[in-house]
Amino acid sequence: MERTENPTDTTTTAPSDTVTAGAAPAAAAPPVASPGGAPPPAATTDASASATLPASESPDAAGAPAAAAAPAPDAGATVAAAAASAPAGVEQQAPAQPAPTPPPTSAAPPAKTKGVADIVFLVDVTGSMAPIIDALRRNIESFIDSLGAGDANNAPPVKDWRGKVVGYRDIETDRDWLVDNPFVRDAVALKAQLAALRAEGGGDEPESLLDALYKLATMEASPKGAQAEDPRKWRYRSDAARVVVVFTDASFRETMSIPEAKGGSLQDVANVVMANRIILSLFAPNMEGYDRLSQIDKSEWEAIEYPGLNPQEALQKFTADPANFRNTLKQLAASVSKSAATVAL
To answer: Given a cut of 50, is residue 62 above it in pLDDT?
Structure first.
């Protein structure tokens, strides 16, 4: 088995909390401070250059053009003249200088919310997935316990989590292709959601994973500062990390069919996943499509394969060993824990 990850986050801040049309525009760069705070010194003029013209050479005021304006008096010459005409013994005051411009202050670092996560288990619920769903139901408590305790790799505990289970099939052949649930806060309720899933339908491969991911990524979010939580919405993105964990044994359709993204591709899914800060973790066959999905920022992929076994048999073998699968879920919990620190935007 091979696990790959793409830890670098190069996403662009979305203009609103849920973005449905690709990555958000980049934030404007902060204003650049001008070098130095004091204004430049005033230019000076030699006092000799301001000598008065003789009366014979002065222009006739009546004949001067109306638009002509007298030159502005030179500041240096005016000061010098004032000093010369002042009575003896009177101390002269220097002209007041403008106060220097204070240097720009740096913005305070953004606040962080740590140890908070909204987690969605996105599970393929076509006919071959019954053993995997059952294994998840039996072992989900190991995942929850590890979330709250951290682990030996110094993963911080997730002090506040919500989870839910979403099932998907083939939108082209199944009327009820998407099975949604509200967010819950305890392992018993999460196990009940898993137990209610029915592995059926799907027809032939591929399945509609891209459609399901698009719907989850663009799911409505609560507004910033909301006092009450909505179990049908993400929390505001700076209030909780958003994690989607995929379990599947099949390939996916390359073109979406849902009305809001009809004809869209994997790139459209990548855009909304990044714009809405979704952390993606994939447990899927070793197929080229999942390799491309794993290139999305902050995505991980556990390629499930065994020599001589097809993808369905491989995932069943992977989840059939209780000790091994519990350890996998603990590692997943550690990964979620490390991601559950989001910067306020």
So the answer is: no
